[in-house]
Amino acid sequence: MRTVLVTGANGGIGAAIVGELHERGHQIIALGRDAARLEDLAVSFPRVVRWVAADLRRPEALAGLVGDVEHLDGLVHNAAVAPVASVADTPYAMWQDVLTVNVVAAAELTRLLLPALRAAAGHVIFINAAPGVHAVPRWSAYAASKAALRELADSLREEEAPNNVRVTTVYPPGTATGLLERVRAEFGQPYDPDAAGSPQSVAAHIVNALESTER
Ligand SMILES: NC(=O)c1ccc[n+]([C@@H]2O[C@H](COP(=O)([O-])OP(=O)(O)OC[C@H]3O[C@@H](n4cnc5c(N)ncnc54)[C@H](OP(=O)(O)O)[C@@H]3O)[C@@H](O)[C@H]2O)c1
């Protein structure tokens, strides 16, 4: 049995990860931004041993929320925002939100939880973009944030190898969630949930990776 913190726990892929971890007998710390929805999640999945309401646009608040976690087997950086806009149409505030939620909050949460991850020889999983999301016109901030997230993960992997903390980046295919539906609509593209991947299959891959470390 492992203890895993999942961000974006109420989202499409996030809730599926919570469900898959629960199904396989692991304990979950669920981080989201809506306390009422997190409470409902904990009722549905009693192995949610703790939930944390946090707006990841304000990473400075995270220390007071997770600073007491002492032992953590897994940390899944899943939360993200993905507005569709060209550089010409992306104001400073939007750059701040996208880079803060998608990158800075992940770095700060990792920093705060590293002692707990080192104590458990834990595993940090970064959910990146779909494969091939590079230099996408009108998706500049999202593409830039995910490129930064990949570099963050690659640096962290090298830094933490001596401490036995594993780091994995996952590139899910287009997956049937609210995010994909919104993005397709903003690009003027059709959205067929049946033709997209399922959040459950992404979740199964992620939990397989978390379980792949011998205990
Ligand atoms: N769906 C795809 O096709 C696809 C493909 C490749 C990669 N991905 C990646 O998979 C991950 C999950 O995406 P998804 O498709 O499951 O999207 P989603 O359903 O929109 O979930 C995103 C989650 O991020 C949370 N979030 C956004 N802003 C936040 C903030 N300021 N503070 C705290 N939480 C915040 C959302 O919270 P609320 O629930 O409160 O809104 C939501 O739970 C993302 O990293 C995405 O880039 C998705």
Keywords:
single chain; 215 residues; alpha/beta; Rossmann fold; binds NADP nicotinamide-adenine-dinucleotide phosphate
Major β-sheet strand ordering: 3-2-1-4-5-6
Classified by CATH, the class is Alpha Beta
The secondary structure category is: alpha/beta
Shape: globular
Ligand inventory reads: NADP nicotinamide-adenine-dinucleotide phosphate
Protein name: SDR family oxidoreductase
Pfam family, one: adh_short
GO molecular function: oxidoreductase activity
Family: Belongs to the short-chain dehydrogenases/reductases (SDR) family.
Note down, in words, how this protein is organized.
The protein is an alpha/beta fold. It has one domain: Rossmann fold (3-Layer(aba) Sandwich), CATH 3.40.50. Helices cover 46% and strands 14% of the residues. Strands 3-2-1-4-5-6 form a 6-stranded parallel β-sheet, with helices on both faces. β4, α4 and β5 form a beta-alpha-beta unit. α1 crosses α7. The longest helix has 29 residues. The radius of gyration is 17 Å and the shape is globular. The site of NADP nicotinamide-adenine-dinucleotide phosphate has 28 residues, from α1 and α6. NADP nicotinamide-adenine-dinucleotide phosphate binds next to α1 and α6.
Concise summary:
The chain is α/β, with parallel strands linked by helices and 215 residues long.
Question: Secondary structure elements and their pairing?
Answer:
Blueprint: E1 3-7, H1 12-23, E2 27-32, H2 35-44, E3 48-53, H3 63-66, E4 74-77, H4 92-120, E5 123-127, H5 140-160, E6 166-170, H6 178-186, H7 199-211
Parallel strand pairs: 1-2, 1-4, 2-3, 4-5, 5-6
Helix pairs in contact: 1-7, 4-5
